[in-house]
Write a structure and sequence with these properties.
two-stranded antiparallel sheet; alpha+beta; CD59; 153 residues; 2 helices
Length: 153
């Protein structure tokens, strides 16, 4: 009797934690194409400065694109593409549809013209501000899975 009551209360508290913890995601939003001349605010060539950029709520009017996760897209030309140098472009923004259908991963490839591309997606607040994206959501899912296992044992 008490075991069933304890498990029921535990499950309700877990669901409440998940529901209360769910709110609109905040992502950094910038593009190296729109950086002022001589500055690298979006982190194409220098480390991304979180102090010079503010994460925006993906469901607010500030967001250029509404979304449920963050994305960082990088394009880089092959060597010798322009004056024997390379150019890089970085875009950070909210996104609602992943090309792979999976968040928390990075995909990459090379276009026919030799331009390298990389697209990293994540689902934690401000996660597209890192050079490599964290996998905090995997930890949350693991905790949730263990909790469900304990509940049904």
């Amino acid at each position: 009797m008490y075991s069933y009551l304890f498990r029921t209360i535990y499950l309700y508290l877990l669901l409440l934690f998940i529901i209360v913890g769910t709110e609109a995601i905040r992502c950094y939003q910038c593009s190296s194409d729109t950086d002022p001349k001589g500055e690298d605010l979006c982190g194409a060539y220098t480390k991304f400065d979180k102090e010079k950029n503010i994460a925006v709520d993906c469901n607010s009017e500030e967001s250029n694109m509404p979304g449920t996760f963050c994305v960082k897209i990088t394009h880089q030309s092959p060597r010798g593409f322009i004056w024997n140098g390379r150019w890089r472009q970085v875009i950070r923004r909210c996104a609602s549809v992943s090309s792979t259908g999976v968040t928390g991963v990075c995909n990459w490839g090379v276009y026919e013209n030799g331009v390298y591309w990389e697209e990293c997606s994540c689902s934690e607040n401000s996660c597209n501000g890192a050079s490599t994206l964290s996998s905090f959501s995997i930890i949350i899912l693991l905790i949730f899975g263990i909790s469900i296992t304990i509940f049904f044992l």
